[in-house]
Each structure stands twice: as structure tokens, then as C-alpha cells.
């Protein structure tokens, strides 16, 4: 009797084994919850009842035979384009509620195409992974409703190409991290009034990974953790032409000399980094702000032998709440034209162990570079820092303010700040302290004075401090 009770208890305690079902649209009505449109793989059996959290669902048909869900259902795995040389398509419409206990896989096999088009309802895979394109091509399009998962990889495998589009009023949320271009090619686009949120993200994660993230319209992209673009020899890009991209920290060009990351801000786009931003930590990191705005608490350009570059042009706005520096790397900061603005609530400080520290200014005629670069708590320029100047269009003689601070301006250079090219072009510089600001001013003489200089008439130009 005891043995019988033990056997019964063991049988009760054993969980039901997962059952694999494949979509065949046998009824021809495309209805996801119509059990006649499915069969148990390896048999001809129909599902015994509504799907549960133990059932694996496979869709390998597309187009006229796609699966359409507009009511409630459940499952364990949802897979499309799983086997080589197949195509799978799933449509999720208003009224749908698909709750998965495990993962979503799209475009897993080679030579596959898989698509989820979501216009409403909800799909949740909150306890596991969403994989978009392992070896094939895969698309996750969310134009309405809510898609949620724990993690996501787009362009997961070296041969995969994946694309995720959040548009319209679609909302996508991830509890943990996402990867765009992990080992393959990945694209993540947030547009219109769509929203996207996750903990952290890496775009272009490994050497074979190439990733691109795009934010436009009024799209809202929010990360509670870090954002990395170009990691471990990968290549990652962010294009923000509208809406906002917000993260706690940003790393661009990280971990390997072959890593390349690029951030492009234009139009009305906003990139907001709550704490630290590093461009070129071992790798190469580029920030181009031609419109919209980029803001962060503080920034390091060039670290651990890396190269970091910032270019602010057009109507772009660049703002740091604290300091700008470089650390055992190379820095290039370029300001173009009179409409762009650069302001720092802290200071500019070039440490003694930086690689190269170059500021470039492209002046816009008599308008120069507007207010130039402003640093609230001082500017310190060490030996080796160079300033290079040029004009956008024809040169206009005059004196221009290119840097200013209400605090102390430290010029520790002994060979002068201006580059050889700037000196050859006739530029001179002076540090002038006024009532409220100390300014780094540069002067280009009028053509007649330049002729005297070239002819040996050096008395025609009095330099207060030059190379």
C-alpha cells in the first residue's frame, strides 16, 4: 500500500512534458486560437485543448497562410522561421493577449524569413529571451499594443539580419538588457509616438556585430542603465533625428582598438545622459551634433589609448553639467559656425597624461563661432594642447572669442596654443580677463597687415602672446 501511494505521489509531482505544435492553417481562416489550424509535431493529433504555458508553438507559413491572433492565448515558446529554408508570419491585432512562459525566436534557421506584425493587444515573454535573426532574416514590427520581454537580441548570429520597428503608438518594454547587432546585423527603430524601454543596451556587441539604433518623430527611448555603441571590436551607431534617447551612462567605442561607435544628433533629436559619457575608451568614439541637443553630466574623450571626437555644427547644442577631459587617449573637439552652442557647467581640463588634445574652430565669417566654448568653473590647457582655426567660406579679419570662463583660465603651454597651420595663416591669440569673463581671443589681421608681415614689416602687428 505504501509503495502504491509513493508511485501515485511521484506521478502527481512530475510536470507535464512540453508539447510541440506546428501551424498548418488547415481550416483556412488564419485564426491562431482555432485548434484545427495546428497539429502535434510527429503525429497527426490536434491539440487537446487551449494552449498552455507548456506548449511550444511553431509557425512556418506566411502570406495568405499566416497566423492571426486577436484574442487570448498562451504558450511556452513561439517560433517562426525555425527550420532552414522556411518562412513564418504572425499577426497580433487589437484584442490579442499572448502570454508566453519562455521565449520568442524569429529567423533562427539559415535562409529563413520570420515576421511578427503587431498592431494592438499584448504579447509578453517576460521570463525569458526574444531572439530576432540568428541565422536568417527576421522582423518584429510593433505599431500598436504592448510587447514585453526580459531580454532581446537583434541580429544574434553572425549570419543573421534582424530588424525591430516600434512605430505608431506601439510600446516595447524589456526588464533587462538588449543587444542590437550582437554577432550579426541588427537594426532598432523607434518612431512616431512609440515608446521603448530597457535596462541597458549594446549596439554592435562583438567583432562580427554591426548595429544601428534610430530614434525619430516623437519616439521615446529610455534606458535605466548604460548605452554602449561599438564594443569588443563591434560597430554601433545611434541616429537621433527626433524624439529623445535617454540613458544613465553612455560608452562609445569600448573595450577594443577595433571598436567603432558613432552618435549622430540632428533635427529635433535629444540625447540625454544622466551621468558619465565616454567616447573612445580603447576604441574610437564619435559624436556629431548638427541639430537638436546632446547633454550629459560629464565626458571623457579618449581613454586607455582610444580616440574620442565631438563635432558640434549647424544648430546643434552640446551641454555638460560638469567637466570635459581626456585620459591617456586622444581628443578632438570641433565647433563649426555661429549657431551651434557649447556650454559646460564644470571645467575643461587636459591632464598631463593625455595623448593629443586638439580644438578645432570653423568660423562663420564675421559671426565667428558665436559664444565659442563656455566652461563655468575654469579652463586648464597643458603642454601639447593645440587649437586649429579655419573659416567656413572666405576669411574675415577681426578678433574672435573662441573660449570663455568666469573662473580661472590656465595656459600651461610653453610653445603656444595655436597649431602651425593657424600661425601660418596669420592667427595670433591672447587671454583677456574682463569684469565677468576671461576669454581666449584669436585675431586674424587685415590683408594689408599680412602683406607687411610677409614682407618683413613685423612692427605692423603687435602680438601680446603668439607662437
Overall geometric form: elongated
Proportion of helical residues: under 10%
| Annotation field: number of helices | 3
Largest sheet: 14 strands, parallel
> What is the β-strand count?
43
**Strand adjacency order, main sheet:** 4-7-10-12-14-17-20-23-26-28-30-33-36-39
Organism: Limihaloglobus sulfuriphilus
Protein name: Ice-binding protein C-terminal domain-containing protein
Pfam family, one: PEP-CTERM
Keywords: Signal
How would you characterize this protein structure?
It is a single chain. By secondary structure, this protein is mostly beta strands. The protein has one domain. It has three helices and 43 strands. Strands 4-7-10-12-14-17-20-23-26-28-30-33-36-39 form a 14-stranded parallel sheet. The chain has a ten-stranded parallel β-barrel with strand order 13-15-18-21-24-27-25-22-19-16. The longest helix has 12 residues, at 2-13. The model is unreliable at 1-15 and 448-467 (pLDDT under 50). Pfam families: PEP-CTERM. InterPro entries: Ice-binding_C, T5SS_PEPC_rpt.
